Amino acid sequence: MLLYRRRFKKRKGVGRAVTVIIMLVLFVLSYIEYKIEPSIMDLTEIKAEALATEAINTAVNKAVERLQLTYDDLAEIKYTSDNKVGSISTNTINVNKLKAEASLETQKQLEKLQHREFNFYLGDLSGFDLLDGMGPSLIVQLNFTSSVETEIKNSLESAGINQTQSTLSIYVCAEIFLTSDEEYPNVIVETTLPVAQTIIVGDLPDYLPVQRYW
């Protein structure tokens, strides 16, 4: 009978230990779900946005360098008989060529980011600066697809008396779909990079818009 009681107490102690462990595991999982996971999503979004911005900049620079298009290749300034600017028209073929090349190169650069992994330390996600870089690391994989839209923008700025600087820029908007987890929000990355500019001599008509998109 005494041996049976000892075995019963031992089993009861093991049962309590298992129950405590299970409760601790459930607590940790709940903490990760409600406290840590939002921080992981925020940091992942920041990382994805930074990588996408860098990829877009690289893509646009490569597209511009490859095509070697000048301002005159993209736009034509037409003057009136009294040496005033009548209009600024675009070369549709070259503009579409630049947009297509930039879009294609951007997609290529973004595809290189597939399956990128990042390590986040648990201390980084705690919200306490003293714990940054401490604790076990969590691995998050970026496995995203994207859609890209491009536009050509013309901005006009005063460059002195009777002079105006016209700058052609390419506007790129990329929507990043983080397909590794459906709960991760889409990331919209927008950037505008200048590709060509010139100085316009002469008065501009009042009806000429300051900014135009083509």
| Biggest sheet layout | 4 strands, antiparallel
Q: List the helices and strands in order.
A: HHEEHEEEEEE
What is the helix content? 40-55%
Residue ranges: pLDDT <50 for 5 or more in a row?
2-6, 207-214
How many distinct beta strands?
Answer: 8
Estimated share of beta-strand residues: 25-35%
Molecular structure report:
The protein is of the alpha+beta class. The protein has one domain (30-213). Helices cover 42% and strands 35% of the residues. It is built from 3 helices and 8 strands; from the N terminus they run ααββαββββββ. It has a 4-stranded antiparallel sheet, covered by helices on one side. A two-stranded antiparallel sheet has the order 1-2. A hairpin with an 8-residue loop joins β6 (163-178) and β7 (187-201). α1 packs antiparallel against α3 (92-111). The longest helix is centred in the first third of the chain and has 66 residues, at 2-67. The N and C termini lie far apart (93 Å).
Structural descriptors:
four-stranded antiparallel sheet; two-stranded antiparallel ribbon; 8 strands; alpha+beta; disordered N terminus; single chain; 214 residues
